[in-house]
Design goal:
This protein is an alpha+beta fold. Helix content is 15%, strand content 36%. The strands form 9 sheets. The chain has an 8-stranded mixed beta sheet with strand order 30-31-34-33-35-36-37-38, with helices on both faces. The protein has a 4-stranded antiparallel beta sheet with strand order 2-3-4-5, with no helix packed on it. It starts with a strand and ends in a 13-residue tail after the last helix.
Length: 632
């Protein structure tokens, strides 16, 4: 029987705990012998990253059991925290000490690297019989740029530096004969989606003796992979779109298959890969134009789509014996899929999703709205319920989501968190504002020098466009985002009256404080987003929400991790103080043990329930299945 209830009050079978369990976080996957191994963050164990395996018979077991935790802190965002050799020996970075450890089957882990000083490892790869890693060495006194290098680590724990000479290094690739090393390098103030160099060096006496730059240095080259001893593949964007190139050493690069889409993305974590060679000159690659698509590229560049359900946050994890592992999100499922390239057969290796049935999931509608700086891309997820409707004439409340980065991207897939709100009658508009990846260099550089302007204008334009279509209640628009998305939330609330409420997760309120306090990977990020200091200090003051705190009017929910090294709690606490001094209704929740991005099950559940209760309190609908919230 269909019931008529106000938007926001629809009964939903999807609890916050079910939503948390339905969105596992995977961190790498690989073929090891006849097994598939993967990293999985276990929310019920405080976000510990275990390494697990599935045998050929389909049995799942831990390779790396508790209390071990495979997490790298290189660049703070880590990535590539584990790898394995063909014999099933696991190499991993333990979160607690950032050392590389080795685990032989049936034995206890043993350390390979020293515990002296603040030295971190990440980006582990086993290639040509060699364990490669990115090493990050922090000065004891702090304050200076950490020294980063590509190293090899022997099974006996001997660490040998192969290459250095730049502020940042990433994605090492060793040729099959072990004679050449390729890697990505860049320097402050660039980010790896601005400008990088693809370097290729000859190895002599255990280190790179000399190297050359294969890319132009004016583009954002990524992910070198060797096809054979002298043929190198990589991603580059001289056309404005990331595509795969092939180069034979000593020759000029040639694009494999040009497309008006991106094979590549922002290198926030060291383990990210977007294509893989599968033999006979063929590749499996991801292409992104809004949503993600997996394709096979033949040796002549002809592209054939693979019928893989992944549409968002897709990565190519590994390839072996005619199969590839692809991780990402499909409607209702976050998981890892194994794909037989020849037959196209697809198997879900590991995944979690909403078990209530697809009829509870909204269909994501790709939308484009006109904005003052050009078109604004977004995905609309309307309220969806098989047995409930709203009273005639009522328009739904909407959450306008702002992703972080700000150089990130959403792919238009309804996951459990989206369904948590839409199944209750709250719409979600997920915005890829100017600065997002997935639409080419011009779109992501729209934000250059304009952070706090273009992002705000674009989310306002998207929300206003949805209202103009008659899709949302203009009096019940809320804006929500984390990290850089939290900055846009706060900036939009002081610059516009479009939003009636806001939710900021570890958001940036003071750009000058962020420039002074943040970690080295992003220490000069604001040079490109706003301008270099001290020359642009006036812009920092003008753009920062804290500099315009007298304009806060709408109720605000602040959610913050106590151990956040990227956006420290002081940022949220300064916003809280500003709201309190002006009598603006607000709530502040500090989560102990959480960093930049929530991983603990209890945190994820509490944050979702608190957000729902906050929206009900502000917009005037009942939320009987979550505890009520008091606003200060």
């Amino acid at each position: 029987m269909v019931v008529t209830l106000p938007y926001g009050s629809w009964p939903s079978p999807l609890s916050a705990s079910a939503a948390a369990a339905s969105a596992p976080r995977f961190e790498g996957a690989a073929f090891v012998g006849d097994e598939v191994w993967w990293g999985e963050s276990i929310a019920a164990e405080g976000g510990r990253t275990a390494v697990r395996r599935r045998s050929g018979a389909g049995e799942v077991a831990d390779v790396l059991p508790a209390p071990w935790n495979a997490r790298s802190r290189v660049h703070e965002y880590g990535g590539g925290a584990w790898t394995a050799d063909p014999g099933g020996r696991l190499f991993f970075v333990e979160k607690a000490d950032q050392r590389i450890w080795a685990l032989q089957p049936g034995a206890e882990p043993v350390p390979l690297t020293s515990d002296a000083g603040d030295v971190r490892y990440g980006g582990l790869r086993w290639q040509a019989g060699t364990l490669l890693a990115v090493r990050e060495e922090h000065a004891e006194a702090g304050g200076s740029t950490p020294r980063r290098s590509i190293v090899s680590v022997s099974p006996e724990g001997q660490v040998r530096e192969l290459a250095a000479g730049s502020d940042f290094v990433a994605q090492p690739a060793l040729s099959p004969d072990g004679r050449h090393l390729a890697w990505i390098a860049w320097n402050h103030p660039d980010m790896p989606w601005d400008r990088t160099e693809l370097r290729v060096g000859r190895i002599g006496d255990g280190a790179v003796a000399e190297w050359t730059v294969v890319s132009s240095g004016a583009t954002a080259a990524l992910q070198p992979e060797w096809e054979d001893e002298r043929t190198l593949l990589y991603v580059d964007d001289p056309s404005g779109r990331w595509n795969v190139f092939r180069v034979t050493l000593g020759s000029d690069p040639v694009v494999v298959s040009a497309a008006p889409a991106d094979t590549g993305g922002p290198l926030w974590v060291l383990g990210s890969r977007w294509y893989a060679p599968v033999g006979d000159g063929r590749l499996v690659a991801l292409r992104t134009q809004g949503s993600d698509e997996a394709v096979v590229l033949d040796a002549d560049g002809t592209a054939h789509a693979l019928d893989v359900p992944v549409r968002s946050r897709a990565l190519i994890e590994d390839a072996a014996r005619g199969h590839v592992l692809i991780s990402g999100s499909a409607p209702g499922v976050t998981g890892i899929w194994s794909v037989d390239v020849a037959s196209g057969a697809v198997e879900l290796v590991r995944g979690g999703g909403f078990e209530g049935g697809t009829h509870w999931l909204p269909d994501g509608r790709a939308v484009t709205f006109a904005g003052p700086h050009g078109p604004v891309h977004a995905f609309d997820f309307p309220p969806t319920h098989p047995d409930a409707v709203a009273p005639d004439g009522e328009l739904p409340p909407y959450l306008v989501w702002v992703h972080g980065g700000p150089t990130a991207h959403v792919g238009g897939v309804a996951d459990a968190k989206i369904a948590y709100f839409t199944s209750r009658g709250i719409g979600v508009l997920d915005v890829n504002y100017g600065g997002s990846t997935g639409y080419g260099r011009d779109y992501r550089e729209r934000l250059r020098g304009q952070w706090g302007v273009v992002d705000v204008d674009d989310v306002v334009a998207a929300a206003s466009g949805l209202v103009a279509e008659g899709g949302a209640d203009p009096a019940r628009l809320a804006i929500e985002g984390g990290s850089a998305g939290g900055w846009t939330v706060l900036a939009a609330l002081v610059a516009s009256d479009v939003f009636a409420a806001g939710v900021s997760r570890y958001g940036v309120g003071d750009a000058r404080a962020l420039a002074a306090d943040t970690h080295d990977f992003e220490a000069r990020y604001l040079d490109g987003l706003i301008g270099p200091l001290p020359e642009a200090e006036e812009l920092y003051l003008q753009r920062s929400p804290l500099g315009r705190a007298d304009r806060f009017r709408a109720p605000l929910l602040l959610l913050q991790g106590a151990e956040d090294a990227v956006v420290p709690p002081a940022q949220s606490e300064a916003i809280r103080s500003a709201l309190a001094s002006r009598g603006v209704p607000h709530a502040y929740v500090l989560y102990e043990g959480e960093g930049h991005g929530f991983r603990r099950a209890e945190t994820i559940v509490h944050a979702l329930e608190t957000e729902l209760a906050f929206l009900g309190r502000v917009f005037g609908f009942e939320t009987p299945d979550v505890p009520a919230i008091d606003l200060d």
